[in-house]
Structure formats: C-alpha cells, structure tokens
Amino acid sequence: MPEVYAARRDRLRDRCSAGGSAAALVTRPANVRYLAGAAPQGAVLLVGTGEDVLLCAGPPDDELIDGRPDESLRVQVLPLPGGDPAVAGADLAAAQSAESLAVEEHHLTVARHRALTSVAPRLRLLDLGGAVEQLRLVKDEDEISLLRIGAEIVDQALSELLESILVGRTERHLALELERRLIDHGADGPAFSTSVGTGPNSGRPGHRPTDRRVEEGDFLSVCLGATYRGYRCEIGRTFVIGTSPADWQIELYDLVFAAQRAGRQALAPGVACRDVDRAARQILDSAGYGSGLAPGTGHGVGLEIDEDPQLTPAAMGKLDACVPVTVEPGVHLPGRGGVRIDDTLVVRPEADGGPELLTITTKELLAL
Amino acid sequence: MPEVYAARRDRLRDRCSAGGSAAALVTRPANVRYLAGAAPQGAVLLVGTGEDVLLCAGPPDDELIDGRPDESLRVQVLPLPGGDPAVAGADLAAAQSAESLAVEEHHLTVARHRALTSVAPRLRLLDLGGAVEQLRLVKDEDEISLLRIGAEIVDQALSELLESILVGRTERHLALELERRLIDHGADGPAFSTSVGTGPNSGRPGHRPTDRRVEEGDFLSVCLGATYRGYRCEIGRTFVIGTSPADWQIELYDLVFAAQRAGRQALAPGVACRDVDRAARQILDSAGYGSGLAPGTGHGVGLEIDEDPQLTPAAMGKLDACVPVTVEPGVHLPGRGGVRIDDTLVVRPEADGGPELLTITTKELLAL
C-alpha cells in the first residue's frame, strides 16, 4: 500500500506549508515508520519540496521485520559509517534550496540540532512539534486490523496460561512464558515488558516480575501486549488463586470492574478525554481510593504502546472515531495487593455499535 | 557502597567547576544510575553546589530491580504527575543560586532545553558533553565483578542450549529459550535482543530471529547478553549443524577465529583503539572480505551494552587498564551465511596476565 504512505506524507507537507516551512525532517522512529513504511535503525525522513528521501545510516535490511520502506520513496544510504542521517538530511534540504526546515524538537537533541545548524547555516530550523503524532491519532481500518490481530494474539496467550498450573511458579517465569506464547501465535514480539504481579505485588501498574511464587489466596495480575507488524495493543486482567476469593478481594474486584466499565462506556466520538478518565476515576475516588491512583486511566495505542490521546484529569481534547485507546483503572493496596483491568478498544460512533472491544478475554473474576 | 556514588559525583563536580559551571543536570539514564545508584524512570540528578538531589517523576519503587538510590542523596519526588524532573532540576539549581548549569546536550531534546531556559531564564545553560560517559570508561573491581557474573550467566545459558536438540527449531524459539535461561540463572534480563541466525542468516550482525528452522549443514550463530545488577556483557559464537562441516565453513571459521584472536591479543593499556580494530580487520581484509565488514570490531560495555571506547578504524583514543570491551569480528556471505565470534574481555596490563577473558565458552568449531 505505497499510496497510503505517500498520502500521509502529502498531509504532512500540507501542514508544513501551512506552518510556513518548505520541508520537514522526521527523526522520531515511530513517525518515520508511519510515513515511510519502515524505520531502519537511525533512519530519518526528509519530506521536502522535491522527492521525499529516507536517509539511512546503513543498508536497510532485506528481511526487515519492521517493514519495508515504501517503494515510492527514495532510499539513500550514508556512504560513511558513523554519520548522522539527520545531518545529511539537513544538507540535502539545503541542496534542494529549501529556506526552512521543520524538525521534531521534542525528539532531536540539542547536540544534533547544533550539528544541523552547522552543516546548513542558511537553513532556518523551525519546530514541527507533534504534527506527525497528530496525524497518527486516528487510525485507518488497515491499522485497526493489525491491532485486532495483535489483540487476538494476547487473548490467546493469556487463555493458554490460564489452563496451566500456576501455584508455585514465579512472576518472572509466568511473564517469560506469556512472551513465548505471543511469539508462538505470530507476534513480532511483546509490545512492552510483560508485567506479572502476585499477592502483594498484584495490581501495581508497571510492576516488574520478581522471583515471588504464586500462592493460594493470591491475587494474580497480568498485563501484556503484542506487537503485530509494528502495531501494539495491550490487555490486563486480575485473577484470584484458589477456590474461594476472600470478601475483600471480591469487593475490590467489583469496584475496579465497575470503574473500568464506566470508562469503557464513556468512550464515544466527541467526548472529552478527561471525561473518560473521570468516569472511571470517580468510582474509585468515592470508594476512598482516590489518593493512590495512577495519573491516568488509559492512553492511545498504535505504533507506540503509549501515545496520544492521554486519558488523564488534565487532558485536553476530545476523542474521535477510529482512535484506539486502553481503559485500565486499578487499585493497589500496599502490602496486600490489588486489581487492574485493562482493555484495548477502538472508539466508534453509537450508530456503529459503540466502542469496539479488541481484547475479549472475560472480565469475570476467575478463581484459578 | 554509598561512598562510591558520592565519590563519583565529586569527580563530576570537579570536572564541572574546571569547565566553569557550578552545577550539572544529568538526564541520561545510565549516567544517572552511575552517579546515583539507581535510575527510576524519568529521574534526573542535580549535582550542585549544595546537596545533590535525585528528582523523580513518581515515588521510586521499593523493590526497584534497577537498584536503590544512594542513601547519601536527597530524593525529591515531583508533587504533580506529568511534570518534567529536568525542569524541576533547573528550577532547583536557580534556587540554589547557581549561575550556570551544565546539561547533557547529546541527550536533552531541544524542547526540554527550551523548557529549562523558560523556567530559569537567568541560569546559563552550558554543555556537560560526555563528561559522565568519560568517568564511566574505566571500571572499578566491583563493576568488573558484576560483568564477570553476567558472563558466567551467558556461558551457562549457551552451554545448556548446546546440549539440547537444535535441528528443526526456529531462530525465534532458540532466542527465547536462551533468554529464559538467562533469567533462570539470575540475570535481571537480556542485555539486548538475543540474535540467533541459521543458514543464510548466520553471521549477520544484529540479525533478528525469524521463523527459519535449523537444518543439517547450517552455520548457527548466536549472540546474547546478560544484564546483572545493571551491568551488561555479551557473547557470540558460531556452530555448525551436523557431523562434518563443509570445507568453506572450516576455512571461513578459521579466518574469523584468527581475526578475533588477533583483536583479543592486541588489547593492552596504552594501545590505540583503532589499532585493535586494525589487528582484527586486516586479517579479514587480506582474505578479500574487506568491503562487507561491519563498521567496528568491538566496543565498550558496562551500564550500557554499547558504550565507549569504540573499536573502529576512525576511533580516537587509547585503551586503559580495567576497560571492558567486546571483540567481535565476523563475515557474512549473502545467501550463504557466515561466522561471528564475540567475547567480552577486560583490558589488563601484561604484568597482570594480559586481557581477562570473561566469556569462556570454547571457540573451537563445534559440530552439533
């Protein structure tokens, strides 16, 4: 689908000229990939007045798992190893007689910015800001299909884990096994480091697996993600180990479940991001858990696992249709453990059936 | 060993004042960890005229696998989520009446640099350059001990793999199994993505594992690394599958082995980095493989898997004692495969027995 990439670059070109710059130098890898179809290590993309050029530090690999560069794009490999493709890009923009070049100031370091200025002193460097990130917000149906496949993979990996014996195994081993299963089912790899928390570690956001073993009576919380052709999605579930959950476990689970459902149900085109956060947060808040909560209850996903929009109390902006987001509230009680429930969904209008749930593993409290 | 961290910060302070700046703001995670004993996500370190302060975006985790902050250090957690600790650090430096602040321009983005300027307009921002990276070059014996343990772990993981049946298994599965074994033997995790290449993929530097299965007659090349308490080392070996290697395989293996040995033997305090590279490279070069070689034949290791010194034709500088480096020449013949042999060693003076080999797995050509 080379025309997709060319169309994306044309949209960026329009934004640039509206902002007063003739050309843009894209350095952030996920942005390069979005516009070029591939992001070989260190490669940068010049979207200019002439031909668009992907500048690479070395020969782009034949068998790149990360995709192939769009064929409508010129690929230029730096002749000398160790050179900075961004510097070569500024040089090329100057050679194309561009007067100004927009760069990603939120990604480019001060030292590289200086090197660009020094190689092309007449080129005025402007700030591209998050223009490409903005373009990436709303996904097309092909992108959503890739996320959907990734979600099937995480659902499958998780369901297989639940069929195995868990008591006595360590968090680290469960995390590794989940990652192996992701690969077995066709993922490029995990979308982020798999988090498995047992007992007092359960429900902690971003908990890094330890050597603690699963015990009877534990909460077990799992958060994993798959990358499929570059697109990343995630799922989080909490289970209880043993036949009969304690009362506090049932209560806490029901509460987090209600918060997560409220967040999911709030997803609709035109809804403010902060209102989705509030829908979930106020349920936990009014139960007295307000102070220990994570700063957000969800975020966008796509070529990166954590991208815009942010579902936080201070977030600006509204949701659009075809924006995939996570909804992942949780409560962690220090020393006791906690619950986290996390889905990836796509915002859809009511007429299309409302939010599309990608991660369909059950959210009933399973006793394993 | 809190005094170690305090001593490192004092060395940095000396460099700063020699360079005319009163304080330094360290943002690069490996540098923060080197000076503070821990690098919680997003944390930055202010090494100033007053107390040194580790500024964190959130509460530093109790059970941080990445180490605990040095106790002689003040830890300050930002009150508001979403704030930038670097901005808070500049604010604090200004409050400490520092007139200038050295920042890591090779790590700080243009946007963050601008935010620092705007919060503390009277503070003159200077460039710290690679001052901390320079301090990190020569390791103390405690750091070398951690690398030695990491090397034992990779040796063990590799030797276990070699005892299993390999034919019919995919590159991806072998890579995952190696990573699981690293964890089994106590690694924090892999030091980088494990590379396993079979047949035509063998010997490719940085090859990402595919679904290709190991076949009789293949070269099988493996490159893996372990992180142990933050320190990263690596090993690379090439094997042949089946009872009798082909003549071209034996010849190519012997050649790369000779190049790698020459590189290892060149390691000594006072030797120019480029001379180590040349020692290995010229053997491959004179056999006619000069044009397709990787840009370097080795690099430093430590808190990062690829740090200074670089062993490349254009490298400046000389080796010192107690600098750990890799020596990893290789040849890849497109369509046929190749050989790569990679060790982690510590530069030691002749009087101490010469270079210390950390990765001791045999480099004979094993037929598996």
UniProtKB/TrEMBL annotation, chains A, B:
One Pfam family here: Peptidase_M24
Q: Where is this region: Disordered?
A: 189-212
- Its top-level enzyme class, in one word, is hydrolase
Which terms does the record give in the GO molecular function aspect? aminopeptidase activity
User: Which residues belong to any copy of the Creatinase N-terminal domain?
Assistant: 8-138
Q: Where is the composition biased (Polar residues)?
A: 192-201
Name listed for the protein in its UniProt record: Aminopeptidase P family protein
Q: Which organism is it from?
A: Streptomyces gibsoniae
